[in-house]
Amino acid sequence: TGNLLLDPAFVNTASCSSKITYIDGDKGVLRYRGYPIEQLAKHSSYLETAYLVIYGDLPTTEQLEVFEQRIRRTTLIDERMRDLFRCFPRRSHPMPVLAAGIMALSTFSEKSAGTDPEQVENATDRLIAKTPTLAAFSYKNSVGQPTLYPDNSLSYIENFIRMSFGFPTEPYEFNDEVTRALEVLLILHVDHEQNCSTSTVRMVGSSGANLYSSVAAGVNALSGPKHGGANQAVIEMLQGIRDSGMSTQEFVNKVKDQKSNVKLMGFGHRIYKIYDPRAAIIKEHADNILKLHTGRQALLEIAQELEETALNDDYFKERKLYPNVDFYSGLIYEAMGFPVNMFTVLFAIGRLPGWIAHYREQMQTNNKIWRPRQLYTGEQERAYRPIELRP
Ligand code: CMC
């Protein structure tokens, strides 16, 4: 073990080479396959961005049509999967239900539950097509409402919105601004190079596990509050500030008091030491969406004031802590009508193409099993003692 380097939390270690996403954390740059996130958020669709990230380039009209068609005809899930959903307790958290649903999917298709390129291609289509269906089912289960079948005359995003908020007996009225805001949010989440969940997908994939197992592991990694759960924590923090009646300055002072162990949720990032470019785009949409829901503007106002207070404070300036993607995204999801326990599920739908792209890239390059080393700090050799002789 003489030459081992210790790097807890991989702060300085690159685990792989990748051609998918470029981040410059000092300048606030994020590009998928070379395209700036701002341009994709403005002009692209979720499925087009998924294609870009997975296959390496923007599709032609024909390629996009074929891809969309492939996804559209795969949205239904096996009827027996509905029984699976019925097994979960009524109010179960939709995130573990989604993870279980993704694993269950693999058992319904031998054609895609392996690792040869054709199977991976098949699993790619099935995961992109069926994850929103599973997500909407887990949501409907969590609120005790009837589930809806996908309607393939709708766009990908509309389909998901209707399956989430519609009722089988009524036509659904879409609001174009909400549909586009959700699409933009998903585009912004599509990839973020070697974050915890994506590294998990690569780690599991490196053992030769199939795409479903690797993606389900990614969903579970994403469920933690330091990763995908932060947008839920932001809402809870804002509600706490509102309910306690404290000023944003008082809250910031509490965060600065090291003993309090309170963090300003939605602030700070391992890579970005400047404004997260995704947060800047989301902030614009937050204004538009919250205007539609006047009752919910109070939290946005607290968030805006809190951001300003923190950005002007030396504690945050010195540590280069700026709003990250989660600071405003939860507010929009909330205004759209999603309960907080669905926020991470939405993040998972967004991140799915990134996980798939990384899995495939790894399969196509050097898929050596990941096996980090460690520095052992435990006991040296000692002799076994019978239980009656132990202190
Ligand atoms: N509020 C208050 N202080 C903070 C915060 C915060 N949100 N973030 C970092 N700090 C302080 C931290 O205490 C440390 O101070 P000191 O040097 O005095 O000990 C300093 O800033 C450096 O922070 P760090 O913990 O070493 O940074 P990290 O790279 O390990 O952590 C982070 C990054 C995102 C986990 C952290 O900033 C955090 O916990 N933020 C709040 C949770 C959050 O918003 N998470 C979403 C991240 S973006 C989406 C995603 O990747 O899933």
Sequence-ordered SSE layout with sheet pairings:
Layout: E1 21-24, E2 29-32, E3 35-36, H1 37-43, H2 46-55, H3 61-72, H4 79-87, H5 94-107, H6 117-143, H7 156-165, H8 176-189, H9 196-205, H10 211-222, H11 230-244, H12 248-256, H13 277-292, H14 297-311, H15 314-318, H16 326-336, H17 343-364
Antiparallel strand pairs: 1-2, 2-3
Helix pairs in contact: 1-8, 2-17, 5-6, 5-10, 6-7, 6-17, 8-13, 8-16, 8-17, 9-10, 9-17, 10-17, 11-14, 11-16, 12-14, 13-16
Bound molecules: carboxymethyl coenzyme *A (CMC).
Written description of the protein model:
By secondary structure, the chain is an all-alpha fold. 56% of the residues lie in helices and 3% in strands. The chain has 17 helices and 3 strands. The chain has helices spanning 37-43, 46-55, 61-72, 79-87, 94-107, 117-143, 156-165, 176-189, 196-205, 211-222, 230-244, 248-256, 277-292, 297-311, 314-318, 326-336, 343-364; strands at residues 21-24, 29-32, 35-36. Strands 1-2-3 form a 3-stranded antiparallel β-sheet. Helix 11 packs across helix 16 (326-336). The longest helix is centred in the first third of the chain and has 27 residues, at 117-143. The chain is globular, with a radius of gyration of 22 Å. The two termini are 33 Å apart. The mean pLDDT is 94. It binds carboxymethyl coenzyme *A. The site of carboxymethyl coenzyme *A has 19 residues, from loops.
